[in-house]
Amino acid sequence: MKVFSLEEANALLPTVRGLIQSIQREHHRLLSFQTAAREAAEAAERGGGGIIGGTTYARVLTKLAVLTGEVETIGVQIKDYARGLIDFPSLREGRVVLLCWQLGEGDRIEWWHDVEAGFAGRQPL
Question: From CA 107, how far away is CA 14, in angstroms rounded?
């Protein structure tokens, strides 16, 4: 697990923001296939299946997986695709905590929370 200082996390934010915006777009596109994908999965269980726009669906899934992999390779944790919520593992008073940011919050990370607390336990830095 990569551990970030606040300065390192803030320096990466512009790059990560662009990736998260792309992830959010692809996630939104993926949601448009939700009903068709469920119906295709149910039909496949009965020996049939298929999805209208299946190649587009596969491309969206692949692109989402690649983008997610890029963020995870940096060491950033994606918590919610729709909200653009991410965490940067960090150290605070000798223990691992998460620096928390989501799309729309600005150019600097301003929140942190304990690993177990999640978003509801966010505290200002």
Answer: 8
How do the residues of the chain divide into helix, strand and coil, expressed in percent and rounded to 5? 50, 20, 30
The string of pLDDT tens digits covering residues 76-99 is 999 999 999 999 999 999 999 999
Residues 6+ apart with CB under 8 A from 47: none
pTM greater than the 0.70 cutoff: yes
Cα separation, 49 vs 53, whole angstroms: 13
DSSP string, 11-60: HHHHHHHHHHHHHHHHHHHHHTTHHHHHHHHHHHHTT----TTHHHHHHH
